[in-house]
């Protein structure tokens, strides 16, 4: 099992936090709130269930917490600073949202999509999420959600810039030495397993890299290094060091002299 870097941004927990935050807001007590991630996982749900599902006896309005998108403005540092964009779609199902309660059915939630959006701005702008950053509405943060026809829907976007994340360290490069036709491989990473190929293909870690259908190694030509390898002039040797909890380091490409 790979050890997860605790400094990484937990986007799943972020969505759970947003769900809990909005569900706890009294302004939205009659609005059904759904996470897009869970909505996609449950293939039985239909989009209109977002605003048809009753909440506190009301229907006709809903909010979809869309899955976050992430941008990086700089790629020349380890663990690049990431800007997380968070978007929400507010739904109002026509007049259904304003139907009074009675024998015909439940009451409407009583909100226009534009009002729901303003509640989102009021709740989320400058909201600090522990370990993630402070959410802000910037620029043109609001627009009609035209990908949902025949219903009043608006998309609202917020951004937050977390602290720079610490990238998972990598294994050290594999070193090679040739002596009397034998190649000796080594890595300074403690406990690393070295895998190599002699045909120019990628040296996959076949202890892990198994085809899900055949359960055979994805690269049968990749071998785990256990002792010096017989080599001949002109052969191409590739090798990489693998260790649990670390990302793969540089992949050696070496032509035997």
Element layout with pairings:
Elements: H1 11-23, E1 32-35, H2 36-41, H3 49-52, E2 58-59, E3 61-65, E4 69-72, E5 82-92, E6 107-108, H4 113-124, E7 128-129, E8 133-134, E9 142-144, E10 152-160, E11 175-179, E12 182-186, E13 193-197, E14 223-224, E15 229-230, E16 236-242, E17 252-255
Residue windows where pLDDT falls under 50 for at least 5 positions: none
Secondary structure category: alpha+beta
What amount of the residues lies in strands?
25-35%
Distance, first to last CA: 39 Å
> How many DSSP E strands?
17
Tally of individual helices: 4
Shape, per Cα inertia axes: elongated
Q: Fraction of residues in helices?
A: 10-25%
The major sheet is characterized as:
6 strands, mixed
Mean pLDDT: 89
Q: What Rg is obtained from the alpha carbons, in whole angstroms?
A: 27 Å
N-to-C series of helices and strands: HEHHEEEEEHEEEEEEEEEEE
By oligomeric state, this entry counts as single chain
Walk me through what this model shows:
- The chain is α+β, with helices and mostly antiparallel strands and 257 residues long.
- Helix content is 14%, strand content 29%.
- Strands 1, 3, 4, 5, 9 and 10 form a six-stranded mixed beta sheet that branches. A four-stranded antiparallel beta sheet has the order 14-13-16-17, with no helix packed on it.
């Amino acid at each position: 099992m790979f050890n997860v870097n605790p400094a990484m941004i937990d986007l799943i927990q972020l969505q759970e936090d947003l769900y809990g935050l909005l569900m706890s807001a009294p302004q939205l007590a009659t609005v059904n709130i759904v996470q897009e991630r869970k909505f996609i996982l449950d293939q039985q749900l239909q989009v209109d269930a977002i605003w048809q599902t009753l909440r506190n006896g009301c229907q006709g309005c809903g909010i979809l917490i869309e899955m976050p998108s992430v941008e990086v403005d700089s790629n020349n540092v380890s663990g690049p600073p990431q800007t997380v964009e968070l978007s929400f779609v507010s739904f109002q199902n026509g007049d259904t949202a304003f139907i009074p309660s009675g024998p015909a059915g439940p009451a409407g939630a009583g909100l226009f999509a534009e009002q729901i959006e303003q509640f989102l701005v009021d709740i989320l702008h400058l909201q600090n999420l522990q370990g993630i950053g402070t959410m802000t509405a910037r620029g043109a943060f609001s627009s009609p959600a035209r990908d949902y026809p025949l219903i009043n829907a608006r998309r609202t976007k917020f951004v937050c810039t977390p602290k720079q994340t610490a990238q998972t360290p990598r294994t050290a490069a594999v070193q090679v030495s040739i002596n009397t036709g034998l190649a000796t491989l080594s890595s300074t990473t403690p406990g690393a397993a070295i895998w190599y190929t002699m045909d120019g293909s990628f040296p996959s870690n076949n202890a892990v890299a198994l085809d899900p259908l055949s359960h055979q190694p994805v690269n049968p030509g990749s071998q785990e290094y256990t002792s010096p390898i017989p080599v001949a002039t002109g052969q191409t040797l590739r090798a990489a060091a693998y260790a649990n909890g670390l990302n793969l380091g540089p992949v050696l490409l070496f032509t035997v002299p």
